């Protein structure tokens, strides 16, 4: 079986290869091919993997190159993990918004829209080359912003492309741990929304919905990172456990204040961390794997740090309501990550062994209130016949309204990208719930066009 990683020089690629070569990997991969447009990054990641493969129980054969069509030839599965513009682009995604007093985050709000604008042309190109070179391959996309990118690629490849994110299934696992669900219990759940905007609304363990009791128990909720981020009173008011990214919608004022007051944005942290990593490995390839492990631990520990304030007052003078305090707990980092979701999905479609997971798929009537071709995030059963989304209870009230507004912004952006329309892009920014003014939306778009060549090229 041949697996192709597009974006194969990326920092998180070793996680994928480690999962593929693990003793408990559900499917054996004969070859992993790394494709990237940057030969230097391929060299660095190749040095890490050369050392990693020595300790894997089932190491795949590793190849690499910069020619896309050659990479795709004979591919069985394609993982899309592109980061167009690199971490330097992420810095500008965040900073342009923050300089205008608007939340700056890479997938949520205007930063996510800017990221999408410069990524969509490349995502469509990849889909077109897959259709031409390896039309029977499955494409698993963890290129952010996942919902928008998957929707664009589905227009070319249909159901052969599926978007993934590790946050929804990670939330389910944390909730199961919090209710002390026994190993081997029969589990079903209701989760609905769009990428980085969804809610866990029921959690049945051996036929009993354990979520109401969990929401009523402060001690149990303390074991769920998302409840600590948003506050136990708020999750009880919702009657559901939110995806961690709902923090930015629930507390935009506080999040923006913390980000603006911080010495560095998350993008700046990662740009420094990862830039240093590539330079260090180039200088001393003998320590490539040790260097990667060190930087990876630091990256995981500081994830969404703006949502976890230290004890004391916030930057804006508030009391920190709705935010956890201190470092991430070890159990918050554990759970397998996006590479485990990708491997489980790949194994299910290739072996036929059914698996249940939360995926980015077309609504198709499974989530009422959204267009049938809109990509949403739903529980799915995956087997040898493909991906089968579950019908879920309709979203209602404020939840439905928020999802519809974000999806309307995303679909305006998709149309703007397809038609290279600046006016539609302006409307997309203005429609987003985290942008509070049409005038600010125009300034955001103008700022991104000036700062990011990929955004300008996508519209000019």
Q: Average pLDDT, to the nearest integer?
A: 92
Q: In whole angstroms, how far apart are the ends?
A: 41 Å
The largest sheet is: 6 strands, parallel
Low-confidence stretches: 310-321
Strand content: 15-25%
Q: Tell me the helix content.
A: 40-55%
Strands in their spatial order, largest beta sheet: 3-2-1-4-5-6
By secondary-structure content and strand pairing, the structural class works out as: alpha/beta
| Cα-based radius of gyration, to the nearest Å | 21 Å
Compute the number of helices: 21
Q: Could you give the count of β-strands?
A: 15
| Overall form | globular
Name its key features:
single chain, 460 residues, alpha/beta, 6-stranded parallel sheet, 4-stranded antiparallel sheet, 21 helices, 15 strands, globular, metal-binding, nickel
Sequence-ordered SSE layout with sheet pairings:
Layout: E1 2-6, H1 13-20, E2 31-35, H2 39-53, E3 61-65, H3 68-72, E4 77-80, H4 86-99, H5 110-133, E5 138-141, H6 146-157, E6 161-163, H7 167-178, E7 187-194, E8 197-205, E9 208-209, H8 211-216, H9 218-221, H10 225-230, H11 232-238, E10 241-242, H12 246-250, H13 252-261, H14 266-283, H15 288-301, E11 308-309, E12 324-325, H16 330-333, H17 337-351, E13 355-362, E14 375-383, E15 386-389, H18 397-419, H19 422-431, H20 438-451, H21 453-459
Parallel strand pairs: 1-2, 1-4, 2-3, 4-5, 5-6, 11-12
Antiparallel strand pairs: 7-8, 8-9, 8-10, 13-14, 14-15
Helix pairs in contact: 1-2, 1-17, 2-15, 4-5, 4-14, 4-20, 5-6, 5-18, 5-21, 14-15, 18-19, 19-20, 20-21
């Amino acid at each position: 079986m041949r697996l192709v990683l597009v974006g194969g020089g990326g920092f998180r690629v070793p996680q994928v290869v480690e999962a593929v070569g693990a003793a408990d990997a559900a499917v054996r991969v004969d070859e992993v091919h790394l494709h990237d447009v940057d030969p230097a990054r391929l060299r660095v990641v190749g040095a890490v993997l050369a050392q990693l493969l020595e300790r894997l129980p089932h190491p795949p054969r590793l190849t690499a190159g910069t020619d896309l069509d050659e990479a795709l030839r004979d591919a069985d599965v394609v993982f899309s993990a592109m980061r167009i513009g690199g971490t330097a682009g992420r810095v500008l995604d965040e900073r342009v918004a923050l300089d205008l007093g608007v939340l700056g985050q890479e997938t949520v709000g205007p930063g996510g829209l800017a990221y999408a604008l410069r990524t969509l042309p490349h995502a469509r190109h990849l889909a077109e080359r897959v259709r031409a070179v390896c039309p029977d391959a499955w494409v698993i996309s963890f290129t952010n912003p996942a919902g928008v990118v998957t929707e664009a690629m589905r227009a070319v490849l249909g159901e052969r492309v599926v978007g993934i994110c590790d946050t929804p299934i990670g939330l389910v696992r944390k909730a199961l741990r919090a209710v002390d669900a026994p190993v081997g219990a029969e589990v079903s759940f209701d989760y609905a929304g769009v990428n980085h905007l969804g809610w866990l609304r029921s959690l049945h363990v051996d036929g009993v919905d354990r979520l109401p009791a969990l929401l009523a128990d402060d001690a149990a909720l303390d074991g769920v990172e998302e409840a600590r981020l948003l506050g136990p009173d708020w999750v009880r008011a919702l009657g559901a456990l939110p995806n961690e990214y709902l923090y930015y919608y629930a507390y935009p004022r506080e999040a923006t204040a913390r980000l603006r007051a911080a010495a560095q944005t998350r993008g700046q942290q990662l740009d420094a961390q990862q830039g240093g990593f590539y330079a260090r490995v180039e200088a001393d390839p003998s320590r490539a794997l040790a260097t990667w492990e060190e930087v990876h631990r630091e990256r995981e520990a500081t994830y969404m740090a703006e949502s976890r304030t230290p004890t004391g007052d916030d930057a804006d003078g508030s009391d920190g309501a709705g935010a956890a305090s201190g470092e991430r707990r070890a159990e918050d980092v554990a759970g397998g990550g996006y590479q485990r979701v990708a491997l489980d999905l790949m194994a299910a479609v290739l072996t036929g062994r059914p698996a249940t997971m939360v995926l980015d798929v077309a609504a198709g009537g499974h989530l009422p209130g959204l267009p049938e071709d809109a990509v949403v995030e739903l529980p799915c059963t995956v087997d040898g016949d493909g991906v089968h989304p579950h019908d879920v209870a309709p979203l209602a009230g404020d939840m439905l309204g928020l999802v519809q507004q974000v999806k309307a912004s995303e679909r305006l952006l998709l149309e703007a990208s397809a038609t290279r329309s600046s006016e539609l892009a302006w409307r997309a920014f203005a429609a987003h719930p985290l942008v509070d003014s049409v005038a600010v939306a125009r300034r955001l778009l103008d700022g991104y066009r000036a700062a990011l060549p990929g955004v300008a090229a996508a519209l000019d």
